[in-house]
Write a structure and sequence with these properties.
The structure is a single chain. By secondary structure, the chain is of the alpha+beta class. It contains seven helices and 25 strands. α1 runs antiparallel to α2 and α4 packs across α5.
C-alpha cells in the first residue's frame, strides 16, 4: 500500500507543480494495521480527498489497514545542526534508502518528524530528506548565530584529521572533508589550530589543511584549481564530499568552496546560470558550466576548462576533452551552457558559517 499511496502523492505533486525534492512528506508504519501519512499543508487540501478514498478502500479490504493523515506544520520545526564530519541525507528513514545528498559539520537543517531514530528534515537549500538523529544536535538560533560569527577557516585538504592534542601522534577524534567551515583558535604551535565544534567539543587540526575564509569574488582560475584538487575522487551517487561525488555534487562543492551557492542537482543548476552559447563556453569560457542530457532533460554537468576540455565526475573526478576520439561526450551532446561568474552581477554569496534560512 505504500507504493499506491506514494503514487497518489506523486501525482498530486505533479499536478500542483510542486518539486518533490522540496516537499516534506512521509509514509510510515504507525502500528500493525495503521499507516501514517504526513504532508505539508500546501498539498493537504489537494491530497486529502484522494488519500481518504484510499483509506476507505484499505480499511474496508481484507487487510484492515487504516491511513492516518497528518499535516506537517512549519511552526513545529526543530532547529538542528550537523555534529561533525559528514552526514548522509537519505530518501527514507533507513540506511538502505537512496542517498540523495550529504551535509558537512556545522551545517543546519530543520526537523519536522522523528521516526525510529531518523529525522525528516528540510535543508537550507529547500531539499528534504531523512538523517540519523545521532548525527545531529538540537540548537537554537542564537547559538547558531554566535557560532557563525566565529567561523574563520575552511578545510581545503580532501581529508583533514582532527586530533585530541596538537600532536599527530595523538588519537584522531574526527575527520573533516574539503569545504567544511570551522571556528578555530591559535594554539601557540603554528602547525595546529584548535577546532571548536558547535557541539562544544574541541580538537586540533593541522593548519596546512585549512585556509582563511575570503570575501573576494571567485575567479574561473580558482574554480578550476578547486576542481582539479579533487581529481581521482570516486563517483558516489548522492555524494557531495571529497570522499565521493556525483556530477552535480562536485560542481556544487567546488563553487561552495568559492563562496557561491548553487542548487544541488544539475537540472536546477542549469536554471540558475546565465545561459550562453555552448561553443563559446566550451572553447573560451573556462569556469562556465556545461549541461548534458536527452532532449528536454538535464542529467549531467561539467565545468569547462576552455579549449575543448572539461572537468567532471564520471566514474571519478577527471578531465576530458571533446577533441579525443574516446571522449565520453561530443560537442553536440551539450544541451545548455551557462555562466556562474559573470563579473557583472555577483552570484549569491555563501556566508562564513551556515546560512540561517529557517
Amino acid at each position: 500500500y505504500r507504493v499506491e499511496i506514494d503514487g497518489i502523492i506523486s501525482a498530486v505533486e505533479k499536478s500542483s507543480g510542486i518539486d518533490s525534492r522540496m516537499l516534506l512528506k512521509y509514509i510510515v508504519s504507525a502500528g500493525s494495521s495503521l499507516l501514517e501519512v504526513g504532508v505539508e499543508s500546501r498539498l493537504r487540501e489537494a491530497l486529502s480527498r484522494k488519500l481518504e478514498q484510499a483509506a476507505k478502500q484499505l480499511s474496508n479490504g481484507s487487510s484492515g489497514t487504516d491511513i492516518a493523515i497528518r499535516t506537517i506544520s512549519m511552526k513545529d520545526q526543530k532547529l538542528l545542526a550537523v555534529k561533525a564530519g559528514t552526514l548522509n541525507v537519505r530518501a527514507g528513514p533507513s540506511a538502505e534508502s537512496e542517498l540523495i545528498t550529504q551535509l558537512l559539520a556545522g551545517e543546519q537543517l530543520g526537523a519536522f518528524h522523528l521516526h525510529n531514530g531518523w529525522y525528516l528534515v528540510r535543508m537550507s537549500d529547500g531539499y528534504c530528506g531523512w538523517v540519523r538523529s545521532s548525527g545531529v544536535l538540537g540548537v537554537n538560533r542564537r547559538n547558531l548565530e554566535d557560532y557563525s560569527r566565529k567561523v574563520n577557516k575552511m578545510v581545503v585538504s580532501n581529508i583533514a584529521p582532527v586530533y585530541s592534542e596538537p600532536d599527530s601522534r595523538s588519537s584522531r577524534v574526527e575527520e573533516l572533508v574539503a569545504g567544511t567551515r570551522i571556528a578555530s583558535d591559535n594554539t601557540g604551535d603554528k602547525r595546529f589550530l584548535r577546532v571548536n565544534f558547535l557541539s562544544g567539543g574541541t580538537g586540533f587540526i593541522p593548519a596546512r589543511d585549512t585556509l582563511d575564509i575570503r570575501a573576494d569574488l571567485p575567479s574561473p582560475e580558482n574554480v578550476l584549481r578547486r576542481a582539479a584538487a579533487f581529481m581521482g575522487v570516486p563517483y558516489l551517487w548522492g555524494g557531495t564530499t571529497s570522499r565521493g561525488f556525483d556530477c552535480s555534487g562536485l560542481v556544487r562543492r567546488v563553487f561552495d568552496m568559492e563562496g557561491v551557492v548553487l542548487p544541488r542537482d544539475s537540472d536546477l543548476q542549469a536554471e540558475a546560470v546565465l545561459g550562453i552559447d555552448p561553443a563559446e563556453a566550451i572553447d573560451n569560457r573556462p569556469g562556465s558550466l556545461l549541461f548534458f542530457g536527452e532532449t528536454g532533460t538535464i542529467n549531467h554537468v561539467a565545468i569547462s576548462a576552455g579549449g575543448g576540455n572539461f572537468l567532471h565526475c564520471r566514474g571519478m573526478v577527471r578531465i576530458d576533452s571533446f577533441e579525443l576520439p574516446d571522449a565520453p561526450f561530443s560537442r553536440k551532446d551539450v544541451r545548455k551552457a551557462g555562466l556562474v561568474l559573470t563579473g557583472e552581477s555577483p552570484p549569491k554569496r555563501r556566508q562564513g558559517g551556515s546560512d540561517l534560512l529557517f
